[in-house]
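Example A, followed by Example B.
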Amino acid sequence: MNEDRAARYHRLKRQASVAGLSWGVLPLSALLATGASARLRDLADTAAAVASPAWQSGVAVFVYVALLSFLNEAGGLPLAFYSGFVLERRYGLSNETLGGWLLDQAKSLAVGLLLGGGAAGLIYWCIRMSPHRWWLTAGAIFAVLIVGLTNLAPVLLLPLFYSVKPLDRDGLCARLLALADRAGARVLGAYEWGLGTKTKKANAALAGLGGTRRILVSDTMLAQYSDEEIEVVLAHELAHHVHGDIWKGIVFESGLIVAGFYLASRVLSALVGPLHFHGVADIAGLPLLVLAAGGVSVIMVPVAHAMSRAFERSADRFALDLTRNPSAFISAMRRLGAQNLAEEHPSRVVQWLFYSHPPIGERIAAAQAFKA
């Protein structure tokens, strides 16, 4: 593993991530400070006037979200291109063509518009129904939606971006299904996840909940890893379901959403006059709502990462206990680190702010200690 090269790659990716966060904040703030958000609202209201009266408020919200999304996408496209296409190709991690990358961006925009428009419509419906307690109702609805989206993502969203087909290696398929049975995790089946047209990186996952839960192994992993290495990687993924980490994450995320909505409700009530909104249900206040609610999530990122790293360490130990194959775990981690250009020993500050998984070096050291 070329540590210097990996460190440079991740440093540039982190810088792009911070710049992307800044871009998300600055335009929203500018819309509020200049009154441009009110002008976008007026455009949305004009467009919604053609709809029947019963649908006008919902249409206006969707049109406003569409206008805001296009503005954000247009401004953020150069940075997304640099981080998602230029850097990946510069460091030899991408197989994707420019046309394929642009198509994925268009798909992401369309999906984001549908989900964002629907989410905003629900929020403003809650605000109109209960201007003072909307944050609690909206938070409860969003918690249910997170569960539904987690359940349906492998069926509805994943095939939009990747090819997914049944795993055609009978021996490996039987081995992985038997592993899931030993772990006590019911799965629909094992599938080949087509990452190879987009990236040289390897990955595996256990996606979905209940009836949609399925094993996913990337074609890039199938091409280079032994059955034992793939088995121990999947044992780690199984641990998250056995330990209930998915549900713990959903509860944590739901709590963040409720806290964010509560803060947004306080901020909206306080600034509705100074910013000349028509009321808390004025769609022109959406940038303020996003900034306030998003601020809670940003502040809690170190806590979320710390919780995730604890889950990952526990999952590593589960995989070692289940497979009793630390040698395969160590070789898989080394291979993943080299193939995915992972940093082996990032600083503690970097881990605290950016790492949802323990560094590769730490995971290998833990497996070596288990082996000893």
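Example B, a separate protein, is given below in the same form.
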Amino acid sequence: MTMIPVRTAICSFGMSGRVFHAPFLHVHPGFEFYSVWERSKHLAAAIYPTVRTFTTLEDLLSDKAVELVIVNTPNYTHYHYAAQALEAGKHVIVEKPFTVTEQQGKDLIALAAQKGKKLSSFQSRRFDSDYRTVRRVIRSRELGTIVEAEIHYDRYTPALSPKVHKETPGPGTGLLYDLGSHLIDQALQLFGDPESVFADLSIIRDDSRVPDYMEVLLFYPGLRVRLKSSYLVREPIPAYTIFGHQGSFLKTRADVQEKHLLAGESPSGPDWGVEPAGEEGLLHTDIDGKEVRQRVPTEKGNYMDYFSGIYEAIRNDAPLPVTAEEGTRIIRVIEKAYESLDKKQIVQFR
């Protein structure tokens, strides 16, 4: 069946647009990387000569040929730009974090429903090889009842980001909104909504003015989930440690897609998203009454699955790969984390 490409506009051609969106729009037969918003530079056109460059968002949105808009601008702009795109009659993908507040997310959901448009939160880490492997092991129930899980997303970046908006205190800044959005999304997908939340945030890098260390504890009946991230981890530990009544599972964060995209590789071919040998997770449990300690095969990662899901949602009204409601629940956890930090106590989620 011939695909009718979805003409897509990107609101920024920084790292997000250049690395995580444009290559997939370019390769996927269901999309056309149609236009981009760049105020003064023409970086996108230098790589994709057929792309149209607009210097204002208003001009980009006034082009009736555009069907889908990807909002990948600074966090504090997500709500306003997404609302403008929906008002202009476009389907919208919003980069993480979906919004700054839960109420903004709810307002966008209502607006999308009013306009009859698709609205999705871009949560690419659901499509990482490591996360997919952890999800498979948990669903297999080979660990028995899960009682504790810890998920890390650590980096060693002591220098401040050259992106000033990321290092300037304000709405939506800091590690919890950034990498924390990925960790929270994975926890919610694996275990559902928590009963309560507790958080510890701090500033640990020299000259930093925004939180760059986080630990969030999610409380469930009989289960504790700890989410941790830091910019000063030079020697990483396993990104996933899952403990159950029958056994344990440990897995590194070894998805290769970002590395290959940064190197300019095209997201295609049979080996795309395949982790290197030696990164397999360690499973130590009882299976059929016998103790087993073994490496387990790693699932293949593929961000293209997200874009395929978006295409099916727009063209065939299939379920979205990530919903706006899911993006908004992540923001609810973040707001509850900050509330617990202010009150210095555990706060109820519901």
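On Example B: The two ends are 45 Å apart (CA to CA).
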